[in-house]
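Sequence, structure tokens reproduced for absentees:
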Amino acid sequence: MTQQIIEILAGKARKAVKKSALVSTDQKNEILRDAAATVRQSKDIIVAANKIDMEAAKKRGLDTALLDRLLLNEDRVESMASAIENVASLHDPIGAVIDESTPSNGLHLSRVRTAIGVIAIIYESRPNVTADAAALAIKSGNAAILRGGSEAVNSNHAIYQAFHQALSSSELSSDIVQIVGDQDRALVGDMLRAQGLIDMIIPRGGKSLVKRVQDEACVPVLAHLDGVCHIYVHASANPDMAREIILNAKMRRTGICGAMETLLIDQNFPTPAQLINALIEAGCEVRCDDMIMELDNRTVSADAQDWDTEYLDAIVSARIVSDLDHALDHIEKHSSGHTDAIIAADDKAAEYFLRSVDSAIVMHNSSTQFADGAEFGLGAEIGIATGRLHARGPVALEGLTTYKWIARGNGHVRP
């Protein structure tokens, strides 16, 4: 029964993709602006649905980080609507010519961006993913099959209904965005095995979800893994800048994947105690090595597991490193490949760091909390890919496309 549900959804999605290929950029942008307006008009409905989810989540004992990801209020609904409008304002990648040439055989060849096709997004907690995924799918010409977590079921459906309303009177098929209404976990397994029906799966959630998708999928996966993000404070760093950046990186929103989880301080940085004091005074627990414990007796000793932990909470691991290469060694061993940063006035050291760290996002003198598609000017994101193939970092419109070769001839035959 669950397999039939996925087959029906995927069949509708495939037809919607074919129709989408004939819809102009202006038409897609108009649909997105209508969707943003409908989300705003549905603000009270969406917030009310979210309150139901929040109350149920609190009764289930969800932790602070998950509750923060789940929460929708008027400001966050407005942010969703603005993100949809931002996607409408972006350049349409579909049909863009990547490159073109005319080899010696005389054929005119071009590589042109095209939609991937039917994309399934399996996600937890964050109801804003419903809006982001729908907007990105519409603009990039893909069809999205959305399967949100049970903790956000009411919020997700309220947001989906706003999009459905905008699509119902448009040139696009409303099947371009579909939501899996049944929360039966067997449906996830059927999606993972739906080769030939679904072209790509994007998991967005905790370790257990991502691991299951990667272990079981027979469909290509674009994975968003842990955000074990590091900041290295170089000896040349401005102390005031360093303090402000690490406070923002850790404490602005502790439950997001771009939050700093490990602080590395160069042994020659002049004021390490001030950094630790600032974190503790802001309400952050510091788990650290012996050298930092000697600086502040309010810290606690870190164990081996701490260096590989995405806390998503007001907790940070911290250690003193001997130099830049020592910091790079630590990052190579413990980074999840998401976002890592250096704070340094020494441009040569910063450039060495930026070239040496092989993460999806590498930063200089910046809070890791900027690791976000909207902050990168992408309008919205479907996740931050930490792998090395197809797309890396914030995955937005271009990351949801592939390309095809177009060859134009004039009666060409191959000798």
In short: The first strand starts at residue 97 and ends at 101. The mean pLDDT is 94.
